[in-house]
Specification:
The complex is a heterodimer of chains A (220) and B (218).
Chain A: H1 8-12, H2 14-46, H3 51-65, H4 69-79, H5 89-115, H6 118-126, H7 131-146, H8 148-161, H9 173-184, H10 187-216
Chain B: H1 5-11, H2 13-47, H3 50-64, H4 68-81, H5 88-113, H6 117-125, H7 130-160, H8 172-183, H9 186-215
Classes of the chains: A mainly alpha (220), B mainly alpha (218).
């Protein structure tokens, strides 16, 4: 075998790789933010008194959690144009990722809502707050703080999921790596670099998010 | 040209069934191999001395930091450059196994370390050896505890098996792309793909819940 490892091409393309990495982080961030909104609405209907809400949101969560991300992406990118809904690559990927993560975040939020002590809501009622006010001013702030660790894990796994965007030609890290691979045949260099970049990025985000978690954690 | 969804579906029934078979085959092997490797890595991760623990930790953390798709592409392309020519199917199964093994190792460690200290001490007190303690005290409790997470990993691995379509394994996703390439019914057939995956994954999940109930301590 005559393959000599040479990382020159990686150094020359480093800006592309970092751009791809940044794009992945950005898309995951947008998705986690939008997905949290979906998750919040779903979580409240998952614990709602109305059976219809519970059933509908339960179906959403069960269906989305059991369908691979790639199928959702393909459906939105290639399927929806059939009924006149056409999105560009990046918006359609963010859309798919948001729908996907919404189901996971809903479960996280549901657990968080159920963990809020009953007395907190009753206290709100006692000072004359409406149900809506209790939810907005009492429950949601407690919820956000208590689910931060789960939410940051979610962000990290979403960031890894952005690699799937390569299949609809969003130029993130995996796409860039594949491009280097096919352009230069520097296979080992390309994929080892991508792996290391992903691992290091995940590690750094994890460390950063642990700090954020400590700041927002509810003091015991 | 397309002759309507039901006709197209009927015309492609055999490749579709083939694709479903391949999907189940790949996922099943990946879960089995992943569990075996996961146990092999998980034990030193829990009980190993400094060096073994460090190696196992490096393995799990590294693998868990890489997206499944990158793992699949790396396996497929890099190994062939290194002279190890795996078929797409073998590379797919191998990379999915590696992916799930890291998760299994981590959950095994969690399960084993969560066994109460008093139990281990009790086992020591009645004179069980380390191996006996592991086999009769720690492991049964750990297995019961990690079952839900293990089922979850099985579902994740099955969902991850869609990604092997990218290196050319003809499972459900790639079959759908072939069918759509012929009749352009993207929406219908991708929705069908979603439905099929839902049925497979939901069944795994339900089956897991069933086993969980069976083995639960009453």
């Amino acid at each position: 075998m005559d393959y000599s490892v040479n990382y020159d091409v990686i150094w020359r393309n480093l800006h592309n790789l970092f751009y791809g990495l940044g794009l992945g982080l950005y898309m995951a961030l947008v998705s986690v933010a939008l997905g949290s909104l979906i998750g919040l609405v779903l979580a409240f209907s998952l614990v709602s008194k109305r059976k219809l809400f519970r059933v509908l949101s339960g179906i959403y969560v069960a269906v989305i959690r059991n369908i691979p991300l790639m199928i959702i992406i393909l459906f939105i990118y290639f399927g929806l144009p059939d009924v006149g809904l056409t999105f560009a690559e990046q918006p359609s990927f963010i859309f798919a990722l948001t729908i996907y993560t919404g189901a996971y975040i809903a479960e996280v939020f549901r657990g968080g809502l159920l963990a809020i002590p009953k007395g907190v809501g009753e206290a709100g009622m006692a000072v004359g707050m409406s149900n809506f006010q209790i939810n907005i001013f009492i429950k949601i702030p407690i919820l956000i703080r208590s689910v931060m660790p789960a939410l940051s894990n979610n962000y990290i796994s979403l960031f890894k999921d952005t690699s799937v965007a390569a299949i609809v030609a969003v130029p993130e890290l995996t796409f860039q790596t594949r491009k280097i691979n096919t352009d230069t045949f520097r296979t080992i260099e390309a994929w080892s670099s991508a792996s290391v970049l992903y691992v290091v990025a995940c590690l750094l985000i994890a460390i950063l998010l642990r700090r954020v978690e400590r700041r927002v954690a509810i003091p015991k | 040209m397309s002759t309507g969804f039901s006709n197209e579906l009927w015309a492609s029934r055999f490749i579709l069934l083939d694709g479903i078979g391949t999907c189940i085959f790949v996922s099943f092997l990946a879960i089995v191999f992943g569990t075996i490797v996961g146990i092999v890595v998980g034990l030193p991760l829990t009980y190993g001395n400094f060096i073994f623990r460090f190696l196992a930790r490096a393995y799990t953390d590294f693998i868990r930091g890489i997206p499944v798709l990158v793992l699949i592409l790396t396996f497929y392309f890099v190994l062939s450059v290194l002279g190890l020519n795996l078929t797409a199917m073998q590379a797919g199964i191998a990379s999915l196994s590696i992916f799930s093994s890291a998760h299994v190792a981590e959950m095994l460690r969690g399960g084993l370390q969560n066994v109460q200290k008093g139990q281990i001490e009790a086992a020591k007190a009645v004179g069980l050896s380390f191996f006996q303690t592991f086999l009769y005290v720690s492991l049964p409790q750990a297995l019961r505890q990690i079952l839900p997470t293990w089922i979850n990993t099985a579902v994740e691995t099955t969902k991850g098996s869609t990604l092997v379509s990218i290196i050319g394994v003809v499972e459900i996703t790639l079959v759908m792309q072939q069918i759509i390439g012929r009749n352009f019914l993207s929406m219908e057939f991708y929705a069908l793909a979603g439905l099929i995956y839902f049925i497979i994954c939901f069944s795994i999940e339900r089956f897991g819940k069933f086993i969980e109930k069976k083995v639960a301590i009453k």
